[in-house]
Amino acid sequence: MNLKQMATSKNIRNIVRNASAGIIQCGTNSLSDDTEDVKGDNKLSLLSPSSGYSHSELRHLSHGFINSMLLCHWDNILGPRIIHLWTISGRMSYPVSTLMQICSQSLSGEICRDVYNSFIDFKFYDIPEKQVIVPAFIFTANKAGGPGVHSLSLIIPKSNLTLYLQIHQLLQRCFERIVGKLRIIMNKWDAISEIPREEFRIHITDCMEMLASLTVSALPDTVKLLSTLALFNTCEERRCSRIVDTNHHPYHHDLYLQGALRKSDHIFEYPVQEILYSKYPTTIIDLTQQVVKQSPIYSDHVVHSYDTQRNELTCLHHGDNNDIAIPGGEILTQVDITETLIQGLLEELDKLPAECGVREAYILQFMRVVQKKAVCLIKYLEGETNYGAQAFKGGTRKLRHDLLITTDGDLRIIMAAAEKLKPGIVWFIMGGGDYSNRQISTEY
After folding, report:
1. Same domain (yes/no): 145, 59
2. pLDDT tens digits along 333-366
3. What is the residue-wise DSSP string for 139-166?
4. Which of 221, 218, 228, 220 is nearest to 192 (CA)?
5. How many domains does the chain have?
6. Structural domain for 374, as ranges
7. Which of 116, 212, 298, 444 is the most exposed, fewest CB within 10 Å of its CB?
């Protein structure tokens, strides 16, 4: 084995410092382009399965010379990690290995940095084999678990080096201001901590029981609670959700998750007719009033949904669009049902680090467990009723006993998951009776 092969096999990086120019040139022959993700989907990882990062695209910047921006932070366990990637529409994109290299280089030598240091440091890298130059801003800011070292790197084609050097001071001043604002935002941002633990547990439980959710708040940032609730939905359900729309459609009847803002006078009229029209029962989380309400569950909701659609078309036929009948009585009611699944999940999440996607992965595994319990419930009912040919005898009391489900809340969560897998199964369990009190009876 010659020296060149030995250097490649040991992943030795050659660093050549050009003292006169003050530019660090980093060789990366050990990183083969064969391992790069051609489509840029981040399917391959050079660090670990939890090294994913978010990505967004900036448009209408056709006259710029920056191709991408990279926000990274130093993880005490896994080392340099990418948090977010901004790409410029129409500009060149870079494979994962290049991004990882830039992340590593920008944070190299910062392990002993004082995390309480408020200074913003500047580094400049030249990576000849990738034909890019990288101005990087190093700073400390809060992350999950406390303060940490971060970097904001700009990826610029090396062909624009002369242009960059001409406007270097201007660009540095601009981005130092941007980084200063970013630090404040990161220090203030803590979406879940704004909501007490018990209320947060109730929000998750009600959303998993009712299949759809509307969050109401007077503050736009508070509505971002939906971003956390979306972790308990599938990818398909997230595509049929939205954070908040204050323009033309404050509420849509069949979105799984959505937010709405109260007016300046804190008045918000619940869209009862639209809620009853929806396919699934709905939970309304009012963060301003600190209340959680639910529409009629399962069998009642099916009847109300059918009546609402029929009344709407009947009124349209007769020209009475404003006289659509709404069922009398209290349609949206508060509930408080004991459960153990979500409570246990939150206790386990507290023991995990809130970074590197560990908690998100654990929630995904939890949802798989709930889905398996739902499949078990479906198979149990198929065996007990000869695939639906016979009525189910014993009711929910027998169901809970045989499947070792401890509380009514746990049963409702599992039944909601089963309803998604096999629509109509909840109606079959309940028998289509009147359950307007929204409590699961154990006297069947």
Report:
1. yes
2. 877 778 899 999 988 888 887 766 788 889 999 9
3. EEEEETTEEEEEEEEEEEEGGGHHHHHH
4. 228
5. 3
6. 341-430
7. 116
